[in-house]
């Protein structure tokens, strides 16, 4: 409120100024009272609508050794059961005591889990089993509502269930384990890669191969060809790809960054390079080379993971916006020229053309 004082005015004008000031103050007081009354007598439903809802926090733990798309799918499903996902990454010592030594150390496993786009928080050095103390810590310190694990049994060396306490507390939920992939399978596939080495080693290798390939026949492991090492025939459904996708294209002025590679056995180095690439622009498009392209360039024994498996691992990474499933080896010239064609069969290339139109396009000269 602004009040003006004129010292040379008559008593009448002073009186009317006083009256005006009184009216203004009275008006403000009345307005505040009406507002207070209105807020105090709001119906409860409208009040709760105004109050922020408490997010449901879920916890999933695991070793996440040689992180693969099965782990990513577990994290995706866990996140869907709440609003925030906290992940406990089991310590090297605990894994060693319960399952044998991990292939990847804790710091790498932390990088991998933190890079998954459905993960909100990560707790390092989590225990293998949910103990009374740790469960209390989860509920009291981390405000966890539910503890989640895949539907495969998780049995401790003493034969008890690692999640028994959480189940008893009524705070346990289960997700569906992804078939067809596990760290053990991946180690098996890697061992198959070395089978063509010296004959003297062949006996040891074949016994290891039998141990890790779960009795799959040699024919199946080779895909019948006798030369390859791809034992997975995993083909994702369109639904799975949609589940892993961001579903968003680049904005109108987006700076699109393109990087291509094999991204076989997706690891902490890949995560670092994708983070770097994403930092150079607003939208990261990743070209995943076909199995044939990888074999031709890296040797017949590669890749270990097939095109679809590699694509899912890359798609789950928080720095990636979109992937091209089966990108050509030579990218820049071909893609730029093809992108200007209007061929209706080249859906991916057309969509690249659309995204490239008028946007900055950069191919990083980095081969992963
Ligand atoms: N998981 C899954 N599907 C897979 C592998 C793991 O859903 N193919 C889930 C597990 O059920 C668990 C989480 O991922 O909830 C972390 O698994 P982890 O502790 O790493 O151990 P494993 O189940 O032994 O996984 P793997 O066999 O691949 O090592």
TrEMBL record:
Per UniProt, what is one Pfam family of this protein?
CTP_transf_like
Query: What pathway annotation does it carry?
Result: Phospholipid metabolism; phosphatidylethanolamine biosynthesis; phosphatidylethanolamine from ethanolamine: step 2/3; Lipid metabolism
EC number(s)? 2.7.7.14
Q: Does the keyword Lipid biosynthesis apply?
A: yes
Enzyme class, broadest EC rank: transferase
Q: Where are the transmembrane segments?
A: 19-41
Q: Which domain of life is it from?
A: Eukaryota
Higher taxonomy: Eukaryota, Viridiplantae, Streptophyta, Embryophyta, Tracheophyta
Q: Which organism is it from?
A: Vitis rotundifolia
Q: State the residue spans of region: Disordered.
A: 204-227
- Which InterPro entries does UniProt cross-reference here? CCT, Cyt_trans-like, Ect1/PCYT2, Rossmann-like_a/b/a_fold
Name of the protein this chain belongs to: ethanolamine-phosphate cytidylyltransferase
A Gene Ontology molecular function term for this protein is: ethanolamine-phosphate cytidylyltransferase activity
What GO cellular component is one of the record's annotations? cytoplasm
Protein family (similarity comment): Belongs to the cytidylyltransferase family.
